[in-house]
TrEMBL record, chain B:
InterPro entries: AAA+_ATPase, ABC_transporter-like_ATP-bd, ABC_transporter-like_CS, ABC_transporter_ATP-bind, P-loop_NTPase. Residues 4-236 form the ABC transporter domain. CDD domains: ABC_NrtD_SsuB_transporters (cd03293). One of its GO terms (molecular function) is ATP binding. This is ABC transporter ATP-binding protein. The keyword Cytoplasm does not apply. It comes from Evansella alkalicola. Keywords: ATP-binding, Nucleotide-binding, Translocase, Transport.
Length: 221, 281
């Protein structure tokens, strides 16, 4: 019953170069994660900067974020399907939600942990509060923001796969279709793609950028 | 060159939660003359940094006023350059970008760059212009920080234990450098230290501060001709004079902090009673 690895590799070949099923599915998933991740980073950064710089925002919005953060984003899918009349928008919503909270929390931490002495030094040079945020606090938080982005990607990717298993299109849906046809080799083939993408992004792309930034910021070990 | 006038300055920290307040000092009166090199010397916690921060405008006096020239100080401003104990350089900026950062409020990029180069040359760091802070030694970072403060061409240079974290050799090298800069630029300098020798080495006047009640204990004019030698009789004499008063102040602080554990004999062994004292506190 357990599918043979060799046949799975063959399925990969057919899926990409003969039928094109996998190419279509992969393209769709990649588009979704690209849009979802970008939105999560943008929204998360704005929220993080806001609650990191304003005490009032931290006590209100910040508390809300902490509460929402503990809800796995996939739990929102049923509600999102109703809210967005099913389909693509609902999946995107879940993906964005998955990535936004870790981005927000890390951005907030970065802003909160800026060394006060840097802010004092910049104040002696005549920078006002808005300039301090843009020119000192945000740049100083880049390493933390990057960790946030890496986590946001990981959460968003997992959320996307979960949502696609239930929803429509992409690698997740294709995996479910393959299961319905008892094509276990194809199921394994798709699982391979999913994990390879996860690995490449987390261990090559993000850890490379992180290394570079950390060494520039003088934080590398 | 500009004068600093400190008039009846009081600083009280309020602790809102415990409804307590703590007065660091309540009546500081002091005039720093134009072009003068003045040191604030005193035991830990006597309010040296607090006073410096008030002059810098980073902190507000509870009562009283500080004037730089004619101007009443309320906020920080580029007429006062500040050098902190930690270099406080922006880690994501190169050395020259750090110096330019202090100038960008006033000049265009190209002009700022030329200006920054000039000041990096003054502190002998032209070769490291494009390095990043984490690639520099502590002494070099501190020199960048000095260049950055000077580049704004402030009237007053405020330095809070700028060499406190450096080793002896680097420190004495920087003493020569600061003297050179002071002679070149003719800035009015207020220099915080708790090292007696450092104070005597550099200053025209030394303001000795104490705690409980906080305030100015005594002001010494240092008339020893420059360059000063720490083994010269006048130097040793002044060091002992200052030590005799500062020693009592330090004992007061230690007794306060340690309570019954304080043992005067042991402390005098730890901290020395003779002219080595300046190195140890
Ligand atoms: N933000 C603050 N809130 C409450 N108390 C403070 C605050 N800042 C300083 N103090 C108190 O004010 C006193 C003076 O502090 P300050 O830092 O000026 O001392 P200092 O002379 O610079 O000491 P050191 O040589 O250790 O740097 C200390 O007793 C300190 O505990
Ligand atoms: Mg201090």
């Amino acid at each position: 019953m357990f599918p043979s690895p060799l046949l799975s590799v063959k399925q990969l070949y057919t899926g990409f170069f003969e039928t094109g099923i996998l190419t279509v599915a992969l393209t769709e998933s990649m588009q979704r994660i690209a849009i979802g991740f970008t939105l999560a980073v943008i929204i998360g950064s704005i929220l993080g900067i806001l609650i990191g710089t304003s005490k009032l925002a931290d006590e209100t919005l910040g508390t809300l974020v902490i509460a929402l953060q503990s809800v796995p984003s996939i739990v929102w899918l049923p509600l999102a399907l109703v809210m967005f009349h099913g389909g693509a928008a609902a999946i995107l919503f879940v993906v964005v939600l998955g990535g936004t909270w870790p981005m927000t929390m890390n951005m907030r931490m970065g802003i909160k942990n800026v060394q006060p002495i840097l802010i004092r030094a910049a104040r002696t040079m005549g920078y006002n509060r808005t300039e301090l945020i843009w020119k000192v606090m945000i740049p100083a938080s880049i390493p933390s923001a990057l960790t946030g982005a890496r986590l946001a990607w990981a959460f968003a990717w997992r959320a996307l796969m979960a949502a696609e298993l239930i929803g429509r299109g992409g690698l997740g849906r294709t995996l479910m279709d393959a299961r319905d046809f008892f094509n276990m080799e194809m199921v394994i083939a798709i699982m391979i793609i999913i994990s390879v993408i996860g690995l490449v992004m987390e261990y090559f792309v993000f850890s490379k950028i992180e290394k570079r930034v950390l060494s520039r910021w003088g934080l590398a070990k | 060159m500009e004068q600093v006038l400190i008039k009846k300055v009081e600083k009280t920290f309020e602790n809102k939660e415990k409804k307590q307040s703590f007065t660091v000092f309540d009546d500081i009166n002091l005039t720093v003359n134009p072009g003068e090199f003045l040191s604030l010397l005193g035991p830990s916690g006597c309010g040296k940094s607090t006073l410096l921060n008030i002059i810098a405008g980073l902190d507000q006096a509870t009562n009283g006023e500080v004037y730089v020239g004619e101007k009443l100080i309320k906020t920080p401003g580029s007429d006062r350059g500040v050098v902190f104990q930690e270099a406080a350089l922006m880690p994501w900026m190169s050395v020259i970008e750090n110096v330019m950062f202090a100038l960008r409020k006033k000049m265009k990029k190209e002009e700022a760059k030329e200006h920054a180069k000039k000041y990096l040359k003054l502190v002998h760091l032209s070769k490291f212009m494009n390095s990043y802070p984490h690639e520099l030694s502590g002494g070099m970072k501190q020199r960048v920080s000095i260049a950055r403060a000077l580049a704004m061409d402030p009237k007053i240079l405020l330095m809070d234990e700028p060499f406190g974290a450096l080793d002896e050799q680097t420190r004495s090298m920087l003493h020569r450098e600061v003297q050179y800069i002071w002679e070149e630029t003719k800035k009015t300098i207020v220099f915080v230290t708790h090292n007696i020798r450092e104070a005597i080495m550099l200053s025209d006047r030394i303001v000795l501060m104490g705690t409980r009640p906080g305030g100015i204990r005594k002001i010494y004019d240092v008339t020893i001709p420059r360059p000063r030698v720490i083994t010269s009789p006048e130097f040793v004499k002044l060091e002992e004079d200052i030590m005799s008063i500062l020693g009592g102040e330090i004992e007061k602080v230690m007794r306060e902090e340690m309570g019954d554990d304080f043992n005067s004999k042991k402390a005098s062994l730890l901290y020395g009673t003779n002219n080595n004292m300046g190195d140890n506190i």
